[in-house]
Design brief:
Layout lengths: L4 H8 L13 E4 L6 H6 L3 E4 L20 H12 L5 E7 L3 H12 L5 E5 L10 H19 L7 H26 L5 H10 L5 H13 L10 E7 L5 H9 L2 E8 L15 H7 L5 H11 L15 H10 L5 E6 L3 H16 L4 E6 L7 H14 L1
Parallel strand pairs: 1-2, 1-3, 3-4, 5-6, 5-7, 7-8
Helix pairs in contact: 1-7, 3-4, 5-11, 6-7, 6-8, 7-9, 9-14
The structure holds iron/sulfur cluster.
The site of iron/sulfur cluster has 15 residues, from α3, α4 and α13.
Length: 378
């Protein structure tokens, strides 16, 4: 079964999502913890902002060359007018770089509206739920104003949360299809990235058709491996894993497993509603966001506490080794590498750290490094 072409096209060039026209306004968001359900409930299409490939001619006049290419691509799009098709851009409270870009764009005299969305730093604190619910309510009011002024209804929010549950369920089926060898990793990568870049209902329709026609063998195939890292915005990484016959069984990357976990987290909106029946839609959304797996851009402190758990979970899933992926110059994920390496060493679990760039050109070096690592594990 061929993958829908639109998934391939969007994953190959995520910036092309900015130019797709549709009936609904588009709102860009620059961090995985932004509540897309609120954007959708306001009648807009959420589009994840992932920058784009070089050159960054205009952006590089303002930024140091040692800033990550995701943020340089974002600024380039802003300065060249590529984001003018968006109604607004939303920045999650993430790394220092994204926070500074948000401030720069806010001060800019041109371009779409800039909104910020904050998560509580200490999610376990007594006031975290109330704080977050208030923040989401204020965010919802801002988004509603931008998209026509009507307050976001409880019904619209519920529908969007149901859609998210369906997407998570379909994503788990895609992960399973990958595990059984029916779907090479690059196809899974394309499907999951496209889900963050296009109309979500349209994605579901395509996914249902794709899965209905997919023949799924009954046994696992490929070399089981775990992935850990930030946003992976280079399709070559997925292609290299596919060529090496890797089977990804554990994924904590910012564009795949942290958005669409391979296994059920128990954090579906319907499941949360059963436990917290007294909550309204914003309350359920807040509970989910507080419990959702974090990443180093939002989690304070050292990764030494978490890494042994991640390594142990990867081993339980049958992974034979861990590939740590990091966009060049990305500091938050870079800080995670030493504790991850320590945890892997202590568990005698093979680990390889790979730095990559957003690029137009295929990287033979990456293919060789990933290929050699997977071969070593097989
Ligand atoms: S988290 Fe890393 S990749 Fe993402 S914007 Fe910040 S520095 Fe760049």
């Amino acid at each position: 079964m061929a993958l829908p072409q639109i998934w391939r096209d969007l994953a190959t060039d995520p910036a092309s999502a900015l130019t797709v026209t549709g009936d609904t306004p588009k709102i860009g968001y620059a961090h995985l913890h932004v509540p897309v359900e609120v954007i959708e409930a306001a009648g807009a299409t959420p589009v994840r902002l992932l920058g784009g490939a070089p050159p960054y001619v205009k952006a590089d006049a303002h930024m140091q060359a040692y800033t990550c290419s995701l943020s340089r691509g974002l600024l380039e799009h802003w300065l060249t007018g590529s984001m003018d098709s968006l109604k607004a851009v939303v920045f999650g409270h993430a790394c220092d770089t994204l926070q500074r870009i948000e401030a720069v764009l806010r001060a800019s005299a041109r371009g779409p509206e800039v909104l910020a969305y904050y998560m509580p730093v200490n999610r376990a604190s007594a006031g975290a739920f109330d704080f977050l619910k208030t923040r989401i309510a204020s965010f919802a009011a801002d988004i509603a104003k931008l998209t026509g002024g009507a307050e976001i209804s409880e019904d619209a929010l519920n529908q969007s949360m149901q859609r998210s549950d369906r997407m998570q369920q379909i994503a788990r089926q895609l992960w399973e299809a990958h595990g059984k060898g029916a779907m090479p990793f690059v196809d899974l990568y394309d499907a999951l990235l496209a889900a963050q870049l296009m109309d979500r209902e349209q994605w579901l329709v395509l996914a249902d058709t794709y899965l209905a026609e997919l023949a799924i063998p009954q046994k696992d195939s490929g070399v089981p491996v775990a992935l850990y890292g930030g946003p992976v915005i280079n399709r070559d990484v997925a292609q290299a894993l596919t060529q090496a016959d890797a089977r990804v069984v554990f994924d904590m990357t910012g564009t795949a497993g942290l958005v669409f976990p391979p296994a059920d987290t128990g954090l579906g909106f319907a499941a949360l509603r059963k436990v917290h029946s007294q909550d309204d839609g914003l309350g359920i959304l807040s509970r989910r966001m507080l419990a959702w797996p974090t990443d180093p851009t939002t989690l304070p402190g050292s990764g030494d506490d978490e890494m042994p758990q991640y390594v142990s979970r990867a081993q339980q899933q049958g992974a034979k080794g861990m590939l740590a992926l990091r966009l060049k110059f990305c500091e938050p994920w870079g800080f995670d590498e030493p504790p991850l390496m320590r945890a892997c060493k202590e568990a005698e679990f093979p680990c390889n750290a790979l730095e990559y760039e957003i690029s137009n050109a295929p990287s033979g070096q990456m293919e060789t490094r990933i290929g050699a690592f997977i071969e070593m594990l097989s």
